Amino acid sequence: MTYFFCDMSGFTSYSEEADPEDVISTVNEYFEAAVAIIHGENGDIERFMGDGFLAIFEESSKAGRAALLCTRKFREIGELRRERGQEAMEFRIGLHTGVGVRGSVGGPERKEFTVMGDAVNTASRLESLCTPGRILVSDDFVKTSPERFLIGERFEIKMKGKSHPLCVSYLKGIRPASVEPSEPMAFPVASVTAVVSR
User: Fold this and answer.
1) Could you say which of 69, 122, 155, 163 would form a disulfide bridge with 96 (CB–CB 3.0 to 4.6 Å)?
2) Residue 181 scores a pLDDT above 50
3) Which pLDDT score, from 0 to 100, does residue 99 have?
4) pTM over cut 0.90
């Protein structure tokens, strides 16, 4: 299972200055686009967390593709918002593949179906360490689809509670030759690579 954490950068300062109605409208503008992309790649939105969300994918390749598509879409929305005189927001995305536990937690009066575990925590940590506007992925994610994606240089990060550092890299794009012809795209794969790569 691949865990996809996404969070809006600079949301706290933005929400302090903007009208409450504008804050909700801004979050919805971005998240409506993200939900459509994630569902289109056979992912599930596990939960929304204010200005962020967690999505789950059975196929890591679908998660990576969704992350790249979301990043591009977020930039397109940002350009439109600037044209309207509104603030453009950036997002951090973290992807990690591993084993999690899904089930109902809570008490007799309130229960919630959720997912938890080390893999989920790792994905969340990757998102928090990610540079805004980019996608930080673990080696465990990369190993599941080594020929499908363009990956940046590997480096190590220290994780709280972990005895060994985690090897990570930035997801830069999709290899054009690896995209299935049966999967329609709203824009060419080459455009994804060009826009997302840094």
Assistant:
1) 122
2) no
3) 82
4) no
